[in-house]
Write a structure and sequence with these properties.
444 residues, two-stranded antiparallel ribbon, 14 helices, 72% helix
C-alpha cells in the first residue's frame, strides 16, 4: 500500500506532544479498565459455569468481544509505542518525523487482526467476512469503549443476579427444610394434608429455580427503563417472591395445627360441656312438652328433636385423632365442631322456649289476675260479690288442668274490666240513679 500523505495539516511538535500525552493517559485508563474486567468476579464465574439459554449465547459473544478488546488494546499500545519512538528520535522533530507522526496519530493505518473464533462471535466482525480491520487511534478507542461497555454490562448483570438470588433461595430452602421437619412432627405430610403437598411443590420449584439461576442468570434480569449504564436494572424475583409467600401460608397453617396440639384437650372438654348442656336443655324441653300437653288445652306444642348423635360421633372421632396425634385432621374438625355445638345449644334453647310458651302465658295471666285482686283489695272492694264471682271464675280456669288459655284470658279480661269500672269515679246520670245491676249489664 503506497504512502498517501498525512490526513490534514501536519502536526507541529507541541500538537504532537499534547496528542501523545492524551493518548498515554487514555492508554493507562483503558489498561486499568481491561485489567479490572479481567479480574471481575462475575467474569471468573462465567468462565467456570455451565451456562444455558440467553446467558450462554451472550457470554459467547462477550468472550469474543473481550478477546478482540485485548487485540485492539495491543494494536493501540503498539501504535502509541511507535509514535513515542518517532518522537524520541530527536529533540526537535524534523518535518519527516512530524509527517510520520501525523499519519500514525490521525490516520487510519492501524490494522487489527482477530482470531477466527473471536471474529465469528464478536458483534463487530461477525457476518462481515473480515478477519481484520483498519482504524485510526480515535476510532479504535471508540470501538474499545463500545465493546467494553457491552462486555461489562453482561458480566455485571450476571454477577448481580448470582449475588442476589442463589443466596436468598438457599436461605428460603433452609427455612423450607425446618418447616418440613416441623410439619412432619405434627402429621402434615404429602398425600395426607394440602400443606404437605404445598411443601413438596415449593421444594421442587426452588430446586428448579436455583438450577436455572445458576446456569442462566440473564433470564432473571429486568433492565432499567431508559438506563444505558452497565448493569442498569434489577434481578427478577417474581418466582422467588411467590414461593416465599406460599411458604409463609404453609407456616401459618402449621402454626394453627401446633396451637391445636397445645389446647386440644381443653377445647374437647369445652365441646363436651356445650353438647351436654344442649342435651340437658332438650331433655328439659321434652319434659316440659309433656307437662304442657297435660296442663294446657287447645294449644299447638312443637315437637322436640332427639340429642345430636352425629355431633357426638364427630366428637368421638376428634378424641381419637388426639389420641393418635393426628393434629392436621383434628384442627379443621375441632373448628367445625365448635361452630356446630354452639348452634346446637342455641337450637335446644329455642326449642325449650317454644315448648314452654303456653306455660309462660298461663303464668302471666295468673300474675295479672292476682295483681288486680290486690289492687281491688287496697281500695276496699275485696268482698264485692260481683268481683269475687268474676275472680273465682277466672281462677278456676287458670288453676284447672287442662287449661284453655283462650277462655281463661277472656275471663281475666272480664275481671279486669269489672274492677276498672268499680274503681273509676262515679258520676250520677240525669233522670236519677241507676242500680248496680243496670250498670253491670245483663251478664251480671
Amino acid at each position: 500500500m503506497g504512502v498517501t500523505g498525512p490526513p490534514g495539516p501536519v502536526m507541529d511538535r507541541d500538537e504532537a506532544d499534547r496528542a501523545l500525552a492524551r493518548l498515554g493517559a487514555e492508554h493507562e485508563a483503558i489498561e486499568t479498565s481491561l485489567l479490572a474486567l479481567q479480574d471481575h468476579a462475575g467474569r471468573r464465574l462465567l468462565e467456570g459455569a455451565e451456562l444455558t439459554g440467553t446467558t450462554k449465547e451472550r457470554w459467547a459473544s462477550a468472550e469474543a468481544s473481550i478477546t478482540l478488546l485485548w487485540a485492539y488494546f495491543d494494536a493501540y499500545a503498539d501504535a502509541l509505542r511507535s509514535a513515542r519512538e518517532i518522537r524520541s528520535r530527536r529533540r526537535w522533530s524534523s518535518r519527516e518525523d512530524l509527517v510520520e507522526l501525523t499519519e500514525l496519530l490521525r490516520g487510519s493505518g492501524i490494522t487489527v487482526a482477530g482470531s477466527t473464533t473471536a471474529t465469528a462471535n464478536a458483534p463487530t466482525l461477525a457476518g462481515t467476512g473480515k478477519l481484520s480491520e483498519r482504524f485510526s487511534l480515535a476510532a479504535l478507542v471508540d470501538r474499545m469503549n463500545e465493546l467494553y461497555a457491552t462486555s461489562l454490562d453482561m458480566v455485571v448483570t450476571a454477577d448481580a443476579v448470582w449475588s442476589a438470588l442463589p443466596a436468598r433461595i438457599d436461605l428460603l430452602a433452609a427455612e423450607l427444610q425446618r418447616t418440613r421437619t416441623l410439619a412432619h412432627s405434627v402429621g402434615v405430610r404429602p398425600g395426607e394434608h394440602p400443606s404437605g403437598d404445598d411443601l413438596e411443590r415449593i421444594t421442587r420449584t426452588l430446586t428448579t429455580l436455583r438450577e436455572r439461576v445458576v446456569s442462566d442468570p440473564l433470564a432473571f434480569w429486568v433492565p432499567a427503563q431508559g438506563s444505558s449504564a452497565p448493569g442498569g436494572g434489577r434481578p427478577d424475583t417474581t418466582v422467588y417472591d411467590r414461593e416465599a409467600r406460599a411458604l409463609e401460608e404453609v407456616r401459618r397453617e402449621i402454626d394453627a395445627v401446633l396451637t391445636v396440639r397445645q389446647d386440644a384437650e381443653a377445647r374437647l372438654v369445652k365441646l363436651r360441656d356445650v353438647l351436654s348442656r344442649a342435651d340437658r336443655t332438650l331433655a328439659e324441653a321434652r319434659s316440659a312438652r309433656g307437662e304442657v300437653l297435660a296442663k294446657i288445652a287447645a294449644s299447638e306444642v312443637p315437637a322436640v328433636s332427639g340429642p345430636p348423635t352425629a355431633l357426638q360421633e364427630q366428637l368421638a372421632t376428634a378424641a381419637e385423632y388426639r389420641r393418635h396425634a393426628q393434629w392436621h385432621r383434628l384442627s379443621p374438625l375441632l373448628e367445625a365442631l365448635e361452630e356446630k355445638a354452639e348452634d346446637e345449644l342455641l337450637r335446644a334453647r329455642e326449642s325449650l322456649g317454644a315448648v314452654t310458651q303456653p306455660l309462660a302465658v298461663r303464668a302471666e295471666l295468673r300474675g295479672r289476675l292476682d295483681a288486680y285482686k290486690a289492687k281491688v283489695a287496697r281500695h276496699g272492694f275485696a268482698e264485692d260479690p260481683f268481683l269475687v264471682e268474676r275472680y273465682d271464675a277466672a281462677r278456676r280456669m287458670l288453676w284447672s288442668a287442662p287449661c284453655d288459655l283462650r277462655v281463661a284470658e277472656e275471663a281475666v279480661l272480664r275481671y279486669q274490666r269489672a274492677a276498672a269500672e268499680l274503681l273509676s269515679p262515679q258520676v250520677p246520670e240525669q233522670g236519677g240513679p241507676h242500680d248496680r245491676a243496670d250498670r253491670r249489664g245483663p251478664d251480671a
